[in-house]
């Protein structure tokens, strides 16, 4: 890595992008061997929030009979209010552009307050049902709070919770594993359409936000959710439907792949590019299988047996080549 950095600095100097004095200053700074522990400290802060909220959940589960519901809810509410009060007091207020707290710990206090809000509302609904049988409201309310906090405090982690809550409100689990295991797209076509519509809405909101310059750095989060939701919903229906409806989802997946191919170059987002290729490759193979599933290949099955390893090896080589070319193009 050190040699790579030195070569990159030398290339900048040779191209005339930095002066000789700047080149010498960069070399002198790197010779000090100073390194940052900022990422490690933030990781520990994040783990602290997760462990604290997990501990609260375990405490509630193991002592619910002895502590009492009112006491637990009161404690949750007090801690949540204190966290929010401290964050609002020390925030710089809402701004359309990217902002940060003066102290990084406050960012994780916002995350803590938001998670506690979700726990409080969920526990309140489970025990006392203030929303009646409208359980969706118990999901929608913390989702709205999460969106507000994400935009007001400029917090990406809270935004992830907000989008997850929005997907849960329409009946989706948005992690790739949950989408494959828990969402019965085959049994409910409306759920499939809802997933695709949600993904499209996230894309449209991203486009609109970029036009009005509203938290444009949130784009990658929205687009990542949209890519996973649309692609996995489409692939699931390519596998499960045995009528012509699978052709609709094939077109949706093709359109999604083309769009995310373009946007990954615009944002220079490696993560979008890699998942776009993976989903597109899986979808293309499923479509080919569906098109030829009724064709009798019994006479040439030996040829397929020999060609299959070459096909997969070629796919791996092509995948690596695409990634290298992408990295080269966005680096220039």
Please characterize this protein's 3D structure.
The chain has 332 residues and is an all-alpha fold. The chain folds into 3 domains: 1-35; 40-169, no CATH class; 178-295. 79% of the residues lie in helices and 0% in strands. The protein contains 13 helices and no strands. Helix 10 packs antiparallel against helix 11. The protein starts with a helix and ends with a helix. The model has no long low-confidence stretch (mean pLDDT 83).
Note the main attributes of this structure.
332 residues; 3 domains; 13 helices; 0% strand; globular
Which secondary structure elements does this structure contain, and how are they paired or packed?
Layout: H1 2-14, H2 20-31, H3 38-67, H4 69-90, H5 105-128, H6 135-153, H7 156-169, H8 176-181, H9 189-211, H10 219-240, H11 245-267, H12 270-291, H13 301-331
Helix pairs in contact: 1-2, 3-4, 3-5, 4-5, 5-6, 6-7, 9-10, 10-11, 10-12, 11-12, 12-13
């Amino acid at each position: 890595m050190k040699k790579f950095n030195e070569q990159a600095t030398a290339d900048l100097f040779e191209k005339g992008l930095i002066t000789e004095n700047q080149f010498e200053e960069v070399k002198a700074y790197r010779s000090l061997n100073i390194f940052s522990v900022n990422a490690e400290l933030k990781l520990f802060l994040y783990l602290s929030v997760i462990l604290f909220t997990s501990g609260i959940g375990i405490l509630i589960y193991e002592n619910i009979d002895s502590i009492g519901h009112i006491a637990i809810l009161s404690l949750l509410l007090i801690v949540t209010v204190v966290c929010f009060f401290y964050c609002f007091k020390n925030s710089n207020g809402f701004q359309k552009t990217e902002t940060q707290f003066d102290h990084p710990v406050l960012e994780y206090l916002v995350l803590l307050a938001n998670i506690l809000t979700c726990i409080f509302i969920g526990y309140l609904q489970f025990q006392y049902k203030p929303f009646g049988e409208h359980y969706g409201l118990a999901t929608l309310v913390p989702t709205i709070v999460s969106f507000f906090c994400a935009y007001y405090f400029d917090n990406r982690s809270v935004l992830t919770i907000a989008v997850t809550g929005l997907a849960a409100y329409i009946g989706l689990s948005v992690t790739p594993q949950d989408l494959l295991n828990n969402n019965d797209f085959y049994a409910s076509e409306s759920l499939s359409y809802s997933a695709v519509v949600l993904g499209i809405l996230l894309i449209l909101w991203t486009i609109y936000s970029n036009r009005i310059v509203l938290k444009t750095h949130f784009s990658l989060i929205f687009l990542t959710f949209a890519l996973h939701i649309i692609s996995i919903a489409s692939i699931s229906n390519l596998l499960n439907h045995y009528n012509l409806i699978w052709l609709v989802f094939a077109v949706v997946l093709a359109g999604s792949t083309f769009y995310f191919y373009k946007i990954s170059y615009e944002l220079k987002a490696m993560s979008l590019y890699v998942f776009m290729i993976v989903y597109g490759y899986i979808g293309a193979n499923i479509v080919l299988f569906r098109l030829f599933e009724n064709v009798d290949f019994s006479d040439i099955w030996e040829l397929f047996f020999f060609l299959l390893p070459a096909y997969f090896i070629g796919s791996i080589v092509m995948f690596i080549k695409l990634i290298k070319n992408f990295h080269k193009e966005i680096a220039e």
